[in-house]
Design a protein that fits this description.
Strand content: over 45%
Distance between the termini: 37 Å
Radius of gyration: 13 Å
Largest sheet: 7 strands, mixed
Number of helices: 0
Order of helices and strands: EEEEEEEEEEE
Helix content: under 10%
Shape: globular
Length: 115
Amino acid sequence: VQLQASGGGLAQPGGSLSLSCAASGYSLDEHAIGWFRQAPGKEREAVSCISTTDGRPYYGNSAKGRFTISRDNAKNTMYLQMNSLKPEDTAVYYCKAVRGITSSWGRGTQVTVSS
């Protein structure tokens, strides 16, 4: 049971990055999924998630209007499209999948927004 995040890197302010998180060992389609991030010296915070209750996406205040979470069950992969990036978006981004009391974290991918 593994989650592998990818797609991080360096972007300029105002630019875009797309993160992917592929699951292996189990099917994502019965899991709630989410993206979190942790900046240096700060606590990990929730960026966005999709629950299994209603299937709707939810966004933290920092992500609203700029980020889009999605999932492709056929590819067993979740995504986070990040637009209008700001320097304060710089962090390690983690994906997470939850089903019942079981949760799995990806290893994280670094996103750096700088000119």
